[in-house]
Amino acid sequence: MNPDDRRAQLLVCGVRVFANLGIGRASHAEVAREAGVSVATIFNYFPTRENLVEQVLNQVDEFLTEMTATIETSDLGAPEALYKLMRAFADAANTDSDMIRVWLEWSTSIRDDIWPKYLDFQERVIDRLRQMIVNGQRAGVVAADVDPEDAARIVVGDAHMVALMQFAHRASADMDRFLSHLVESVLKVSTVGGASR
Length: 197
What we know:
Shape: elongated
Order of helices and strands: HHHHHHHHH
Low-confidence stretches: none
Distance between the termini: 50 Å
Strand content: under 5%
Largest sheet: none
Mean pLDDT: 93
Radius of gyration: 19 Å
Number of strands: 0
Structural class: mainly alpha
Oligomer: single chain
Number of helices: 9
């Protein structure tokens, strides 16, 4: 396996281990066991625990940032785009549950070593959502009296509930209704998403 492919494989294993054991307990040895390689191989790619943690969290950051960027660049109006983004996030709790599980823990790990990195990630997501909402206001599809910053922060906060609902195996119709209500109330629009139609 070439070094780039090996690194990618080890990061997939790292995310899985972090999801299963938690950020604080995951180790080089556990990632090596998951990947079926020697501990020395893990240290070769990730020389310190701090580096391992940073690279795994970068994977989660990139995964969620890419999800946001894909919806953001679509031709959908702001309410539908926000609904589709939250639906994609909810679906990811099923299809990429390790990523979402690591994100959930990371978002509540208020420790000096990883909290500033999470805040940076969170602020970038909030800024993208805020801009999406501003664009919606300019297009006349989002109420003018919506505060874009507050609305973006509410959506990020509700992402926790979306993930928890998915992990509790709530019915798809319940999720659609919740997401529609979330977007409608935050953006002050009358209908959006699958449940309202």
